[in-house]
User: Which sequence fits this backbone?
């Protein structure tokens, strides 16, 4: 592991998702505790909106398909209309922490990746959501194999 401390990662599977299925539509909600530095990964057919707090510092991801090719779509919320300084700060934080978040997803769902080894080569696309056009982006972020 590059940055991840596996003992700090707590994984929960919700009804409708097993350790290996489904592929398309499989959703990840990654949150954390500032107090304990624990990471919480929830895997299911829906995002774990009950885990999202007012800080909106979660990472949401899901398996999608484009022309029959699976890819991992990742969503991070930078800001609403609260100003470009907040968007700039949150953009810097998410860019710094995204490798750890992706590593947590790959490690937390390792049985899934063992069952579907071809997904190691799927593309990862990140949607940085911001009202500010300077920070609103859709970027390629490598492949799951890069974060294992």
Assistant:
């Amino acid at each position: 592991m590059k940055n991840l401390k596996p003992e700090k990662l707590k994984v929960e599977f919700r009804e409708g998702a097993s350790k290996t299925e489904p592929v398309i539509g499989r959703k990840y909600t990654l949150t954390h505790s500032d107090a304990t530095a624990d990471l919480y990964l929830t895997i299911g057919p829906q995002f774990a909106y009950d885990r999202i707090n007012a800080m909106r510092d979660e990472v949401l991801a899901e398996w999608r398909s484009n022309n029959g090719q699976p890819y991992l779509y990742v969503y991070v919320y930078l800001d609403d209309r609260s100003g470009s300084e907040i968007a700039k700060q949150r953009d810097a934080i998410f860019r710094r922490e995204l490798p750890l978040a992706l590593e947590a997803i790959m490690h937390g769902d390792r049985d899934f990746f063992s069952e579907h080894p071809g997904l190691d080569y799927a593309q990862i696309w990140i949607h940085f959501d911001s009202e500010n056009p300077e920070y609103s982006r859709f970027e390629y972020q490598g492949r799951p194999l890069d974060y294992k």
